[in-house]
Amino acid sequence: DxxxxxxxxxxxLGAAGLPVPRSETVATADDAVAVAxxxxxxxxxxxxxxxxxxxxxxxxxDEDEVREWFPRAMAESRRKVAQVExxxxxxxxxxxxxxxxMIAVAQRVPAHVVGDGTHTVRDLVEIANEDPxxxxxxxxxxxxxxxxxDAEELVREQGFEMDGVPPEGQLVKxxxxxxxxxxxxxxxxxxxxxxxxxEIAEEAAQxxxxxxxxxxxxxxxxxxxxxxxxxxxxxxxxxPGFRMHTHPTEGDPQYVARPAIDxxxxxxxxx
Length: 271
Known about the structure:
By secondary structure, this protein is an alpha+beta fold. The chain has 9 helices and 13 strands. The two termini are 30 Å apart.
């Protein structure tokens, strides 16, 4: 199933000459380490059929980190298969393609807080979650930020503690990935996307065979050609969320439901 098999999707795109990371699937920690060594550190380890960024380990720097993360990826995989791929750096962009055309582009920013020199990280999360736009799951346009073990570890990696007070203006990430479902925010970039990147996204949707697709790019700047900046397509989503486009935290809303409805009911149809 192309829509759920990340490795098959990446291989198809790579065969079509589109920019993708190097990747292989694995079923054991030993295999994951061997692939990581072959690809070269840092790497990403993630479930082959997961979603919402769960179980995704980014920028793993050595064999020990791969072994440590591997069980987390497997825990989120229904088929108990993980994927190891080269680590691509850059901002996280979602390009929405409907009916073969780019409809909207959003930059996804991971869940974070910004220090004010007074409140602890934990306090800042509570303050952020008081935003009336935030709710549980997908009930509102933003999702509440969760403080779990992964969040605490990430905060510690940045040199802080949950009960410590970060300096004023200091950004502290709570989640490594930019998914809206884990508390991230979105910035509309529809008018900023370089035409070459738009063509790549539209071709990716066509290669995978999806009428509605969310093409995820990691690249320093979506306004620059991804082939020149070293970015890549890291995932294709068969059921992309719309709220990052219809209710961006920053920028203009994009009315993406209309082309989806037009695709289902073209002008002139009796329904």
